Amino acid sequence: MSSRGGRSWLIVLVATLGSLVLSLVAGTHIVFALIAIPLVMAIAWSNPTLLITIMPVWMVFLGFIRRFTPGGGNVAFSGDPVLIIGPVALVVLMFVVFNDKDSQPLSPLARVVLGFNVVAILEVANPKQGGLMAGIGGLLFVFVPTLGFWIGRRYGTPEVLWRVVWNVAILSLVASAYGLYQQFVQFPSWDITWIESKGYTALNLGSGIIRAFSTFSSAQEYAVFLSVGLIVWSVLAAKSVRMPLPVHLAAMSVVALALFYESQRTSIFISALALGVIAAARLRMRPITVALCGVIAVGLLVVFAGAIGGGGGGSAALQGPDSTASILVDHQLSGITDPTGAGSSLPGHIKATRVGMFSAFKNPFGHGSGSTNLASSRYSTSSAASGTEFDPGNMGIAFGIFGLIIYALMLWRMTAMGYRLAVLRRDPLGLVVLGVIMATLLQWTNGNLYSVCWLLWFVVGAGDRLLTKQDEEAMVSTISEPSAPPFTWRKPGEPRRAVRI
Fold it and tell me: Which keywords label this protein (predicted)?
């Protein structure tokens, strides 16, 4: 198994480098896709766990590859064949799961996810999204990432999950280093070309400061992935694994620094919430106390930000009023200390989410699977729907009343599963599952987060598998315990039995 895995890694590396060279020479991504897609399909059938291990690497470097090679300046849903390599991998892995005879009974969470999948497929035919192609394209963003859940339920063994966790940890460190280089040294030429060609307004913080996006397709994806990486490193640091504790703390500090300077305040708040939740779950506190600890962690973040200079004077005094660091720190601290103020985008996000949720009552059947993602802008000219920042608004717009109901069930079942797993196992894997769920809270159906969305669903599926095994072992243990002999009446004339004390 190990020798075959080593040979497979060598084949993947040689084929990837070869296709990159050919793409550079040919000036197109078609060559890359023509080589990579058959390779992905072959690995999926022959060694699915290897492909699962490779997937985080590919997804993290997807945006970088598209920008670095010719034809990759546009990272929107532009028909670039490189974009479909990840979905192809998930679909083929799903066929492998179907072909496997070792099926598992559906857990309560699995039933809810299955219901979500069915609704997503049915909404493809919704005419309000502007056409059938918009609905089919929307499946790439809404439906395909959730296949990771079923793949995780089948192949998410502790060994595979450990490999994925370590890949995410190391990749978050690499992404942080590249993002900090962009922010404080320079943007490489391929990144500058993309910035100029896209005119991505969310990157511009004013005063000539451009928000870092590292190897990803957007700054938002970069920030959410760093949140996941921060949670993973913090869990690993709680119980040093393979590396000394100072190394874990140093890695966690680098990722946290990159996340802070990325200046995406939503991810900062979500990360604080997730850290508070996993700390309380590690102590096996009650669910209401765990939730309260998450809220307290967010409150402490606000207090701490105000104490170190939320008004801007502190950072300016330390870094200089016109330095990049000073501007980024002031932007971040002003939003953290006053999250509902005029300089914060949170009120706008909340308003958009609220409008999206209430639209479900005006359009009970929603606008379709492609109405809240990039598929709508590419394939539809008549749909007026657009996505919101968070899942509840998107579900209200895309799936209507059914979307809100099924998402509420999913929110309940998923968080309950993560909490139970963390409390029962009391090990890094259980805490990682809960931490990833919380670090991506309310962004579980955002398929535009290429490297994060599928990863969440795979981790959740693996967690559901672990919890099911845990419950089965507990049931077997209970059944196997010796029980008292059954009571029988003494027959007439039969001597009394001695009672043992």
Answer: Membrane, Transmembrane, Transmembrane helix
